[in-house]
Structure formats: structure tokens, C-alpha cells
Amino acid sequence: MAIRSLLTRLQSLRLHVIRTNGIAEGFNFLRGISSNNLWAYSFHDQTSYRDNNDTDLKSKLLSRVHPRRSATSVLQNWVSEGRKVSIYDLREVSKQLVERGRYKHALEVMKWIEGQDRFQISESDHALRLELTIKASTLQEAEDYFTKLPNIASQKASYLHLLNSYVKEKAVEKAESLMNKMNSLGANVTPHPFNSMMKLYIATSKFDLVLSVISQMKETKIPRNVLSYNLWMSALHALYGVESVDKVYDEMVRDKNVKIGWSTLCTLANIYMKSGLNERANLALKDAESKLSSYNHFGYFFLITNYTSLKNKEGVIRMWEACKRVDRKLTCANYMCIMSCLVKLGDVKEAERIFAEWESQCVRYDVRVSNILLGAYVGDNLMEKAEALHARTLEKGGCPNYKTWEILVEGYVRNGSMETAVFAMKNALRMSKHCVWRPSPAIVESVLEYVEKSRNLEDGKWFLEVLRDLNLADLRVYRLLIRMHVDNGKPIGEIVKMMEDDKVDMEEL
Is residue 356 classed as helix, strand or coil in its secondary structure? Predict the structure, then answer.
């Protein structure tokens, strides 16, 4: 039935093409249909054409947003209903899930594919499965999967993901063992694994081993790319200083296979800064400006942060104005970067001007941007301006996060407005459940003094619970709470139980 329906559809399509475009084009249309396309027409004839309102498989998988909901069950249900699915469609939906950060569901799709005998798994499928295992599961599971790969081709296609995870974990022995294995298989033929090893050696301060990697690349005629040279220069600076770096840079200039861009010049600028050669650093950054892209903002903000480190406000402003001419929309992160840099340079007025520029065109009020200015006001002890900004943020629909309240807590404590500080701290702690925030020792000390003077037993018990949750409750805190209970004629049994649970020595009371 499916084939008869397919032929009927092809005939109608052929007649339509012949009527509109002529006989020759109609023939070319039929000739251009491959067996895969025939299968696709058959598939659509059996499923989506059967019911135009039926949700397709891709939509079902992409709409299953919550991580706890299973992609595997969607696939099983689809097949159990007698519907067909192709490995090409599943590969495509896996890529889309990865693009959306849905690694768990993408991994479930790839596992399901491997469990179907009718599908032929490619080396790139194995590579994606390994990458997703690293992102959505454990490194141990990824290692186990790698050792069970069916052939050398799959290992070659996959190993770089495993190597990069070792670099991230700073697992030197595992990384070296994997590199040796892949060297014996002839897999290391590009600069990428060598660059990964150099990153690892720099991260673990094994700078001399970076030079060994470079020697190996030269011996095996592996071409060096821009990142190879940048890492090489960074290691040489740590070992021998600026002169050796300049020699490598000269070698890079002579290398016809490498095009020097802004990243190399930023690397040089950082090296010069660390050596106290600020004038040379500024010259390197000025050269880097001519290498920047006119299509994205990426390099501009590297230069902005470098100019900030050099206290070169003119360079910061120049790069900001230049990046606004790039034909791309500036993000909230871009505004946060430039404002933070200006605050570091002490130019709050310019930061205010840029904030007003952002505020005038923002679609959704991102409180992280206003927090930069809020922190600047609190840092300069301008609490009236800080409170006014906070009020305006709320009026414009901004939703304070834990950082907003943390900044305000610091300001109120500094000004001695302890009642307001406690209120702000309660909000900060309520919003920091999914992140790690610990009040500074100065804030803890100030709140303790306030609680002791106010004799507010409710605030005292609340703060004790806060400090216990943060593992900051000590003998002094318990002494204070016991005194407050005694002064208020309250029993201390609950406090004593807490001390026992926290293993606080009561004999020192």
C-alpha cells in the first residue's frame, strides 16, 4: 500500500512539474530522486501524511524540556505505535538538543540508537556519544565506553573529548597515557591534542614539558597553529623571561602557515604586563586593534579588559566605541564588562552614561547589569544613590538576585543600618539556595554585635540557623544565644542540643 501510494504521489508531482517547467525538468526531477528520498517519501506517506495534525518525533523530543522526563520513552512509544524513524533524523535531533544544552536527552537518544540492531553506527556517532557521556554523566562511564569502542577508527574520532576532560580535571598521568596510546595508533596528526597537553602542563606549572611537546611536534612535522605558539610563548616566559618569548614570536612571524591575529598580540601584551613592560604591552594591544573582526565582538572585550589592566582608559573607551560599530547586537554581558572596567578605573560617571544607554534599549531588565552600578555606589559609600537605583530597578521590572541583596547588606552594615542589613541578608540567603554565598567575617561580626545589643531573640535564633547551615557557628555564637535565652527567661535545652549536634565543647562555656 505504501509503495502504491508513493507511486501515485510521484506521478502527480511529475505531471505538475512537466506542466509548469517542461518535459526535461520533469525528467530531471525524477532522476534526482535517490533511494533515500524514496524512503523518505514512503515514511511521510505512512505517517505525517496520514494525519497532518500528528506531532512529529522531533517536536516530541525537543518539547520534552525537563531533564527528568525521558527521551527514551518517547522513542520507544513512537516505535511501538508502528512508526518508522531514520538514523539521520535522530542524529539531527541530537545535534539540536546539544545546541540547546539538553545533553541528558541527547545522550539518551544516542544510547537508544546504539541499542537498535538495524542502525549502522558511525565513528562520528561514537564520538558524539562519548562527548555527551562526559557532559551528562561521569568521567568513569566515559572511560568505560571508550575502552569498549569497536574499532581504532572510532577511538581516533573520539579520543580528543576524553583527553580534554583529563585536561579539565588536571589528570596528567591519564592524559599522558592516552596520548601515548593514540601516538602508537598514528592518531595525533593535528595540533589539537598537542595544544591540549600544553594547556594541561601550563595549568599544572610543568612549563618545561610544554617545550617537550613543541619538540615532539617539530620532530613529527605536526604543524603549529596560533594557539600552539601562544601556549609556547606563555611557557617560555614562565621559564626564561621576555627575550625568549620575542624569539618565538619572530619564528611565528616567519611561519607562512600561521596568520597572526589579535589573540597572539593579547598574549604578548599580557606577558609584557607581567614583566612590567607596560609601554610595550600598550603597543601590542594597539597592533591587535587592526586585527579585530568587523563581524563579532569577541576580541574587543579581550582588549578592553587588557587596557583596563594597564589603566589605559582611553584605550577602553576607544574599543567600546569601535565594538558598537560592529554589525551585531551588544549583549547584557558586554555591558557588564565595559561597566565593570570603567568602575575599576574609577570612572563611575562614564559607567552611568553607558548604563543609561543600556537601560534605554533593553527589552528585559537584567538586574546583573544594574548590580555593577549598585556595587560601585556602595563601594563609594553612596547609599542614597544605591537605594535610588535599587528602587528604580524594581519599578522597571528588575528582579533582585542574591548578589543585589549581598551588595546592599555590605552597604547597610558599613553605614550602621543594621535592622535594614538583617532584612537584606534574609533576602540574600533566601535567593542563594542554588549557589554558594557566605557573608564575610566583617558582616558576621557586625550582625552578631547587632543581635547582642538588640536582644531580639527571634533574630538571634534565625542568625544561629544561618551560621549553622554555613558551618560558621562557633562557641561565641552559642554563648551569645544562651545569654539571650537566660535574659529572656527562656529554656536553653534547644541550644544545648544544637551544640551537641555540632560537637561544640560545652565545658568551655
Answer: helix
